[in-house]
Every structure is written in C-alpha cells, then in structure tokens.
Design brief:
The complex is a heterodimer of chains A (464) and B (744). Chain A has 11 helices and 23 strands. Chain B is elongated. Chain B contains 38 helices and no strands. The chains are: A alpha+beta (464), B mainly alpha (744). Chain A: Its main location: membrane.
C-alpha cells in the first residue's frame, strides 16, 4: 500500500506530507515535477494535467490525483493495489473537504493539525482504515476555541482533569457491524426525504442529432430518524426487473423482450448501493432493505440507457465572421418538450474566441453576460416553458492582434447546457413505498418524495 | 535548585528502561502513581539540566527556535500547546526543528488528547535524528497503552510502531502483546497493523516472538474490522518478503466470506485481495466464493468493484461453460461503472479494462458508447479511450464508431488527431464492411487539409493498401497524387509515401520529378526513408524504366554503397546491385517484386504469457504499466537500498550515541565543577555515583547496539552472496561492511 502521502501545490512543491512506512527517501518528491514534465503526453506543458496519473521512476511509483490546483500524491515501492490507493486518495479529498470546506493551498496551511490528525486516523502503515466522514466527525473534532476551553485553561492545573473527563472515546460505531450509524440518535419529529435525481449527459452534433446520451440516476435519502430504524424501499417492478437483469448480466435479453412488449425500451445498468444496503437480500428477494446512516446520503445510484430519449433543447447556431475584425453569433434555443412542463435555471454557455472586445447582445428573454476568464457568453433563463423558442445575437469585436488558430479552436468547443426540471424522471423509476420500522421506539413516520431531472456536467451541443 | 532532586534523576531511570519488570507488590494504583511521579520527576530534572546547559553554552537568545523553546517551557498549558502547534507548522513547511526534540518531549505527559497527538507526530518525524532521546518517551508510550481510554491506547501503540528506531523493538513487545488481546476492537485492529510495522522493523524478532501466529489467530476474531486489518497486515508482510504468510484453508475461507459483507469498504478490498490469491480446488468452494463475492460488484466504491471483478475472473476457468458466459455478462456493467469516477481513476480503470478485454473480448461488446471521449477529458484519457474503442468495434457498431472517430480527427490536440486517424485505419482493416466508408472519411479529412493529420494519414493509407491491395486504389492514389512530399514531416510518413509510389508506380503522375526531388535529399534522410527509396527506385526500374530512372538508380546505388553510414541500407544496396548484375530478369522480378503478405491488423495484442500475468496484476501497478511486476519492482535492489539505509542509520546512531556520552560527561562535569556555590558537599557526592550511572547506562545502550550488528552483518553478507553471482561491485560492498565492523 502507499508508503507516503503528499499534498503538493500546482508547481509540485510539497505543502504537507505524512510518511507511513519510511521506505521512500525525502528527495523522491523533488523528482515529481520533472516526472510530470517528462511524461506529459503532449510534449512539455505542465499544468494542464496531461500527464498520466501513475508514473515510475527509479524504483518508486508515483500515483497522483489532481484536485483544483493541488496534486495529491502517494508513493510506493511495491506492486500494490493502485486502484485502491487512488480511490482512497479520492475519498481522502472528500473527507478533507468536509472538514475544511474547500481543499486548496491556503486551507491546507491553515488546518495542518486537523489534517495530520485525519491522515493518521484514515490510514495506518499505508492501509486505509476509516473514510466515513460521519464516523470520523464523531471523534475527530476540529480545533476551535470554545468558551469552555478558555475557562479550562484559565484555571490552569484543573484544565487537565477537566479535559480528561471530557476525553473522547472511540465511537463504538466504528467497529460495530453497523459501522455507519451510532446508536442513541433521537429526533422529536421523525422525517425522511427521498429525492430521485437523474442527471442527463448528452452530446448533440451540429445537425441536432443525438450522438450519445447517458442518464445517471441516484436516490438520495435525507433521514432524521430516531434509534436504529429498519427501512424497506419499494420500487416499481419494471425498474426493479431492469436493475436485476443488469446485475445478472442479462441486459441483452431484457432489452429484446422489452422492445417486443412495446415498452419504452429502457435499460437500467450499474445499480450501486450504499454500503448500508444488504446486497444479497436485493438479489434474492428484490428488496432494498437497510438501516440508514443519519443525515444525507446516496442510497442508490444507477445508469439508464434510453433509446427514446430526445434532445430536450434544440440549439440552432450560426456564426458570421466579418473579415476577422468582428464576429456575430446567433443562437436559437427551442424547448423540445411538452408545454405543460417547464425547465428551471437554464444556463447556456456559448464559447467565444479569447479576448473579445465590447460585446453587444440582442435577445428577447433571460439575461446575458460575457465571462472573459472562461471565454464564454452565458445566457441564463430563470424558467423556460415547453415548446417556446428564443433567439439571441451576440456581436463581438475581435482583438486587433489575433491569431487565426484562436478563431478556429473556439468553434470546436461545444455549447454547454445546464438546467433542472422537477416532477418527473426520464427513466420511469417510481417509488412505491418506503417502510420505516423502528423495533424499539415504534414511531410513525412518512417519507417525502421528490423527482428531479437535471443536466449532468456534459450536456453539450457541438456547433461544428 | 535542589541537588537531592537531581540525584534522584538517574536511579529511577535505570528501572525506566524496563518498566514491565518493576516489582511493586502493592496495588495497581500504587504502581501507576509511581510511574507518574517518576515521569514527572524525570521531566523536571531534564528541564533543569537543559536550562543549566544552555546557560553554559550560551544558546542564542533570538530567532524562532528560541521563541519556540521559551513557549514550550511556558507555565501556561495553552501557550505550550500553541507553541507545539507552531513547531509542527514549521515542520510542515520543511524547517528543521529537530533541535527542539528535548523540549517537545517534556510536553508528552499530558491529558490533552490533541496535544498528545501533536507531540507524537513530532516524535515520529524526528525519532530518527534523536534515537537515544526517543527512548525517554518510551515510558509514556507504554503507560499510555494501559490508559483507560481505548483511543489513547490505540494511539500509543500506533505511534510506537511508527517510531522506526531499532531500540524501539525492545520495548514494543510487551505492550503489543497486551494490545493484541485488548477488550476494545478499536485497539485490537490498530495493534494488528502494528505487527506489520514491527515485522518491517525487525522481522526476525517478530517471528521469534510468535506475532505472526497471533495475527493468524486474530483472523478468528469476532470483530470484522480486526479480521480485515489482520488480513491486510499479513498481506503486507507477505508482500515485503515475497513469501506467503497468509495461509488460507477452508475454515479461514469460510470466515472471510462471512466477514466480507460486514466490513468497511477498505476491509472488503483486503479480503478480496486475499481471495484473489487463493486457489480454490473444489467446485463447491468455487461456487461459494462466486456467490459471496458477486454482490460486491454492486458496491459504491470502485476499488471494491474491481477487486471483486478480479476474484471472479480468477475463478472463471474453473466453472462450467454456460455459467462462465453468464458471469462474463455480469461483469460488463460493473466494469463500465468504474468510469463514473475522476479522470485519474478512470485512466487506471481503462488500463485494467483493456486487460480484461484482451482476455475476454466479449465482455463489453455492447458498451461502445460509454467509452466515447468527453470534451473535457484529459489528454491521456482520450488516447486510452480511443485504444479501447477500436478493440470494441464489430460489424454492428462499426459505422457509429467511424462517425465518432471522424469527430475526434477534427479535434484540437494533435495527439488525439493522430490517434483517431490511426484508429480509423485500424477500424477499416478490422471490419471490411465499413472500410469503404472509412476511406471516404479519410479522403474528406485529407480535403480539409489539416496539416497535423497528413503524416498519420499517409501511414494509414499504406497499411490500408496492404490490407486491401486493389479495392480503394483510385481514392488512395488520388490522395497520394495530390500530395507533395515536402508537406510530410515524419520519416514514417515519408517512408510510407515512398513505398506507395514504388508499389503503384504505374498510377502515379510526374513520377520522375517526384523521385528526383526525393533523391536530392537522399543523404539527409532517415535510414527508413533511404531504405524505402532504394527499394522503390529499384522496383520502378524493373517495371517501367526510363532514362531518368536509370540515372537515378545508378546514383542511388552509388551513394548507398559508398556514402551511407547505416549498415542495413548499405547491405540492401549491395544485394540489389548484385541481383541486378545478373542477366536473369525473371529472377530479378521474382526476388524484388514479391508482394508483401496481407496485413490483417495493426491493433497490437499482448502475447499470451504476458496476458496471463497481467490478469494476475489486475488493479495492481502492473496493470497500469502493462508489464509484469517483476519487471519494475526489483526486490533485491529494494533490499540493498534498505540495508544501505540501515547501515547508514547505524552509523548515525553510533555517532549520536558517542556524542551523547561525551555530552553527558560534560554535563556531569559541569554539575560537579561549575555549579552554584550554595551546594552542600553531601549533595555533590550524591551526584558522583549517579554520573557513573549515566555513563554506564549509555554504555549499555551502546553495547546493545554492537550486539545487534552481527545480525545486521549476516543480513548484508547474505546480500553479498547474492551480489557475488550478479556482478563486480561486490568488493566495494564488502569493504563498506568492513568499515562498519571497524566502527565497533
């Protein structure tokens, strides 16, 4: 497993490190920036993350993740489970973010002691231990100056005994078989909120044809329930069967028969559950039964292939170049869904050349802004109803000193869309029921269910 | 300053070294009290000595270090803690604060959990530079392993294992034994890993003391986390020694499979790793493993998924054909799910998927779309995805893929463009059905005249001609005919261009002009180009000789045999010359005009032996490099480095011990000679024997040290033997060993 973990800034200089095994010399990390440059897959440039994430040099293996402007680096000499290390690094970042909000150079410097403490607790001798934020937060609490402490220190000698009485114990949850929920939780109102969220990623070409689409769905549960509740989630059969078929690897046949039956031809794939769900029970009895962690978590995630999905927005793009001094971009957007439905917070990001000058916009709805740092024009709608059509024209002056490649490359970036729609999901998943049963406390509780469809990170339209 | 107190310092210290042997027949409480007071006394007296010494040597009174020192001895707990934090901060940014070691050490006896952690952290970092002083902390560690709070017990045993000082091995045994049997699972699971640390530090002692057996016993523990950590520790130990300490029998197997479902994600990975290496024989056992492991494919942690995939793949050869098929189908969607992760993880996943794909090409047959490139993928990911895409292509999805590759060829990065042009060629060669469309796409790309793709395009065209010698000739010749050779940059492309001209000379317009220009740069060309040009000119002279080509032939044979330095090109020219000198034109044609065999594919595959090794490497580093582990992990080298490090450490330690003795003598003398005037004679006489004590003790430490080196010696001599077989640097090594000997 990992011998040492480093946090490095974007120049490859170490910010903080934890040595777990002592078999990597301290000079090894100094080689890292050179390795990044030497192994870059497009000769030379350093900070665009074009270097493969696993590198070998002189007996040492460098494994890194990029996070914002940081490199999180693990090193090892042995042939270990590199995938494990990477997933651990990823979890490490998530945990640290939950402690310090945003993990970057500054926040690492400011919070080194809590980070050391976490590094110590999350990995021992290179073997990952606990990465569950909720559990960690129970016994690793951020240093903060509370009034109690001030009093304790003021009274001097007594401080010791006082803090001793408050000494933290390792939460028994940690080593229990239900290691995601501590016993003795109590709420006055027992509530559970279920959100079914589906993110659509779609790639559409300039002719309006859909090249690829993917729906990532997740059932998110916010639970505020007392005691150790046993929950059973009921889903509609069609979805369940699809999910089970994919688990058993029978997607092919399921799809075939599905089409024959005239159903919508939806394939459910990659059904993944939170660790609290009894996996074997799902397969055997088609039951999603679990004891939920307290608070918010992703109960289940899945992927859907839908053959009938159409682009939700049609984009018509035209660009006119006036002898390299001025360009005009015309965009027409049409909401391609039933008029009863409406989408909220639609954002259209239109790439433009770098460094354009005095942008002028003509449009009949929404608001438009030019964002120089990203070289995009952002067109925002609060709400757009089905079947409606809107147009905008942007006039942009080009910088007098321009290079032609800039003019070429911006057209290759796709137009990106973001939106959110409430009240339905495309996969046809339905929640039939959520049974909540706490054997000891026996309280009544009813879940609230919401369905949300929104865009993923890659809902884009090619314009060329 | 009280002399009597100072005198006390050394007597208890002797007992301190082996606190477990302390004989107090009273209550446990009394024992603890004594420890506590001793620790306090020790710290007080050390601090007094410090200040005294500092007076003498006139330690600078300014600067950060001085401030830290002041802060560390402050009378306010909060200020001390604050200073420790600042010291750790200085350590983090790489300042050397090792000189504060004794001052930090004074703060170790505290009830403040956070402060304790900080002090321990400091100790771990600088233990190597102050190995002797480190021993002073041992007492607190041992005491902490008996603390009522399990967090403290675990912290102490964890930190003890991290202090990589040889001396530590003497003290760690007893607390480790005790914590392995602790009531609290949190402590036990920490202790289990500590065994691996101990083994790393001193494997001989660790085996002798039976810790490995205890670890095996822990596999039967009631707590799943303890089991998982014991497995991890055993795997770790096995890996570092290249042997197998984790012997799984059917009983342990059952236990592991049962524990699997209760573990944390990381525990599951350890167990799955152990299972992957287990060679199940009976059918029932195989079935049991598969039944238990396959639900893990639905886990949310991708590393669990991949480990489970590995276990199942390893069992595949042992199950019946139809089950094998359904299992393979089952693997496809979990493998795809590995791609909904950050790009770096995706990359490693793709490298693994490629191995699975080579072994079982059917697995992902239906999943082409998932591997399409996203606009914001990093470059290495895009390239990897194209590799996978081509391997997934079949008749049903060929056209779809072609359209996608065409888009990629219009991207911005030249690497992606080249790779996708190449992929279009590979696709056309793999699936004859789409080859026509593929050629059209290539033509279209050529018309777009993006400079960056021309080179790759020509190479691809050559390959296509070798696959389909006549079918698409007109299109390809149009492209080549349109192409001036100076638009080409890479020698590969030029060589391909020259080859096509030679092979299809009758179709090419302005043949003589082209050859003349090429010939004019013959001397400066790459050997590959020279060789291709040589063949081409010879061929043309056999098919349609003209006065110009004959002149060129004479010229090229002359230059190639007289001026070219490359041996291959030269030899080839000589052979041609000899063949052309015979009068038998039929023979000449037979030799020179032979058609090359049809090229089936340019997609490279792993050789079968390597492939099998790579399957074993799934999820490990080897799977990323696509090399077996033995090729990049040099275990002997590793040991060499370790022993070198250790011997270096040893020298350092000796040096330190020596200076320590000298310092202490100075200290003692100071105590005797320069001390305050108001000391009474009795007190000073009390100090004398104690100074003797300190010297003795340090000598003891030292002799322990030399007692340990023979073992070190045997270790390195073993390595010497190993080296004897391999190479000449043996005498050098031996001499360094002798140097070491001399030191003692």
């Amino acid at each position: 497993m990992a011998s040492v973990i480093y946090f490095l800034d974007n120049k490859g200089r170490p910010l903080l490190s934890r040595d777990y095994k002592g078999d990597i010399p301290a000079q090894a990390v100094e080689r890292f920036p050179f390795l990044l440059i030497n192994n870059s897959s497009n000769n030379g440039s350093f900070d665009d993350g074009s270097t493969r994430p696993v590198l070998y040099d002189n007996g040492i293996n460098y494994i890194y993740l990029m996070h914002k402007n940081l490199y999180v680096l693990a090193m090892t000499r042995h042939d270990t489970n590199v995938f494990n290390i990477m997933c651990y690094l990823n979890n490490l970042i998530k945990v640290l973010e939950s402690y310090v909000k945003s993990l970057e150079e500054e926040s690492i410097r400011d919070n080194f002691s809590i980070i050391y403490e976490l590094l110590d607790e999350m990995m021992d001798f290179g073997i990952p231990q606990i990465t569950d934020t909720k559990i960690l937060k129970e016994y690793i609490t951020q240093e903060s100056f509370t009034l109690e402490k001030v009093i304790a220190t003021a009274t001097g000698a007594k401080g010791g005994s006082l803090s001793q009485t408050r000494a933290k114990q390792p939460p028994s949850t940690l080593t229990n078989s239900v290691n995601w929920r501590s016993p003795g939780i109590f709420y006055k109102k027992n509530e559970a909120y279920l959100d079914v969220v589906e993110c659509i990623d779609m790639l559409i070409n300039a002719k309006g044809q859909m090249l690829s689409s993917e729906i990532h769905g997740a059932i998110k549960l916010k639970s505020y329930l007392s005691g150790m509740p046993e929950l059973v989630l009921g889903l509609n059969d069609r979805f369940l069967n699809g999910g089970l078929a994919s688990i058993r690897g029978e997607t092919g046949e399921a799809n075939g028969s599905g089409n024959a039956n005239g159903s919508k031809g939806i394939e459910v794939e990659d059904v993944k559950f939170h660790q609290c769900v009894r996996l074997s029970k799902f397969e055997a009895d088609k039951m999603v039964s679990f004891i939920p962690p307290d608070g918010e978590f992703d109960l289940m995630s899945y992927r859907v292939h839908s053959h009938t999905l159409r682009p939700l927005f049609l984009i018509d793009y035209k660009m006119k170049n006036h002898s390299n001094t001025r360009i005009e971009i015309m965009i027409k957007v049409k909401a391609n869904y039933k008029s009863k439905i409406s989408a909220n917070r639609l954002e259209i990001r239109i790439p433009v050349p770098d460094d354009v000058d005095s942008p002028k916009f003509h449009y009949n709805k929404g608001s438009i802004k030019y964002i120089p740092s990203e070289s995009v024009v952002l067109w925002k709608f609060k709400r757009i109803d089905g079947g409606k059509e809107y147009v905008m024209i942007a006039e942009l002056l080009l910088p007098s000193v321009h290079d032609l490649s800039n003019l070429e490359t911006f057209k290759k970036k796709p137009v990106n869309l973001k939106f959110e729609m409430q009240g339905f999901v495309t996969s046809g998943l339905q929640i039939r029921y959520l049974k909540i049963n706490e054997p000891k406390l026996n309280y009544q509780s009813y879940p609230y269910v919401r369905y949300i469809t929104r865009s993923g990170d890659n809902y884009s339209v090619r314009v060329k | 300053m009280n002399r009597a107190e100072l005198g006390l310092k050394f007597k208890p210290r002797k007992q301190f070294g082996h606190p477990a042997q302390l004989q107090v027949n009273g209550h446990k409480f009394l024992k603890r009290f004594i420890y506590f007071s001793l620790a306090n006394l020790l710290i007080m007296s050390v601090s007094k000595l410090e200040t005294r010494l500092r007076k003498l040597f006139n330690v600078p009174r300014k600067g950060e270090t001085f401030e830290f020192r002041e802060g560390l001895v402050s009378q306010y707990a909060s200020e001390r803690k604050d200073t420790i934090q600042r010291v750790i901060a200085a350590m983090t940014v790489g300042k050397d604060v090792s000189s504060l070691f004794p001052d930090i050490l004074k703060n170790i006896a505290t009830h403040d959990h956070e402060q304790k952690k900080l002090v321990y952290l400091y100790l771990m970092n600088y233990a190597k530079t102050n190995p002797e002083l480190c021993i002073l902390a041992v007492n607190t560690f041992v005491q902490d392993t008996e603390d009522p709070n399990p967090l403290v017990r675990a912290l102490a045993i964890r930190t003890m294992g991290c202090i990589r000082v040889d001396k530590m091995t003497d003290y760690i045994e007893i607390p480790l034994k005790r914590t392995l049997k602790d009531d609290n699972p949190y402590v036990r699971k920490t202790a289990a890993i500590c065994v691996a640390k101990f083994f790393d530090l001193n494997s001989r002692l660790c085996v002798e003391q039976g810790f490995l057996d205890e670890l095996m016993d822990l596999l039967d523990d009631s707590n799943q986390m303890v089991v998982a950590n014991s497995i991890s520790a055993l795997i770790e130990i096995s890996k570092s020694t290249n042997s197998n300490f984790l012997k799984i029998d059917s009983k342990i197997l059952k236990k592991l499979l049962m524990t699997l479902n209760e573990c944390t994600e990381w525990g599951r990975i350890s167990i799955l790793t152990a299972l992957a290496d287990y060679n199940a024989q009976e059918v029932a056992e195989v079935q049991h493993i598969i039944d238990r492991v396959s639900p893990q494919l639905q886990h949310e942690n991708p590393a669990v998924v991949l480990s489970a995939v590995k276990v199942i793949i390893k069992q595949l050869d042992k199950v019946e054909e139809d089950q094998k098929e359904s299992l393979l189908k089952r693997l496809s969607s979990p493998l795809v799910s590995l791609l909904s992760t950050p790009p770096e993880i995706q990359y490693v996943a793709l490298r693994n998927i490629r191995i699975v794909l080579e072994k079982y090409p059917v697995v992902l047959a239906r999943e082409l779309r998932v591997f399409f490139i996203k606009y914001n993928d990093p470059l290495y990911l895009k390239l990897e995805k194209i590799d996978i895409l081509v391997r997934l292509a079949d008749e049903s999805n060929g056209l779809l893929l072609l359209a996608e590759l065409r888009e990629y060829a219009l991207e911005i990065e030249p690497e992606v463009i080249n790779k996708s042009v190449n992929a279009i060629g590979q696709l056309a060669m793999k699936i004859p059905k789409v080859s026509k469309k593929a050629i059209d796409v290539l033509y279209e790309l050529f018309i777009s005249r993006a400079d960056s793709l021309i080179d790759q395009l020509v190479v691809v065209l050559q390959n296509l001609l070798r696959r389909y010698p006549t079918e698409y000739l007109t299109t390809i010749i149009t492209i080549i005919g349109d192409l001036e050779f100076d638009t080409l940059n890479t020698s590969d492309a030029i060589a391909s261009y020259v080859w096509i001209i030679g092979e299809y000379s009758s179709e090419i317009a302005h043949l003589e002009d082209r050859l003349t220009t090429l010939m004019s740069q013959f001397q400066d060309s790459d050997p590959a180009v020279q060789s291709a040009l040589l063949t081409t000119i010879v061929k043309i002279n056999l098919t349609k000789p003209t006065p110009v080509t004959q002149k060129l032939l004479q010229q090229i044979l002359n230059e190639a045999t007289k001026e070219v330095e490359n041996a291959d090109v030269r030899d080839k020219a000589y052979i041609y010359w000899r063949v052309l000198s015979t009068d038998d034109v039929q023979l000449q044609k037979k030799i020179i005009m032979t058609k090359l065999p049809v090229l089936e594919s340019t997609i490279d595959h792993f050789p079968p032996l390597l492939l099998n090794e790579l399957v074993n490497e799934i999820s490990n580093l080897g799977s990323v490099y696509h090399k077996p582990a033995s090729s990049f992990i040099k275990s002997i080298d590793g040991e060499l480095i370790n022993t070198q490090l250790q011997s270096k450490k040893l020298e350092e330690l000796q040096q330190l011990a020596k200076t320590e003795i000298v310092n202490n003598t100075v200290k003692a003398e100071n105590l005797l000679d320069f001390d305050d005037n108001d000391d009474s004679p009795q007190n000073s006489s009390a100090a004398v024997p104690s100074t003797g004590n300190v010297l003795d003790e340090l000598n003891d430490l030292f002799s322990n040290f030399s007692a340990q080196t023979p073992q070190q010696q045997t270790g390195s001599s073993m390595i010497n033997n190993a080296i004897k077989q391999t190479g000449p640097d043996q005498p050098q090594k031996k001499s360094s060993n002798e140097d070491l000997l001399d030191l003692f």
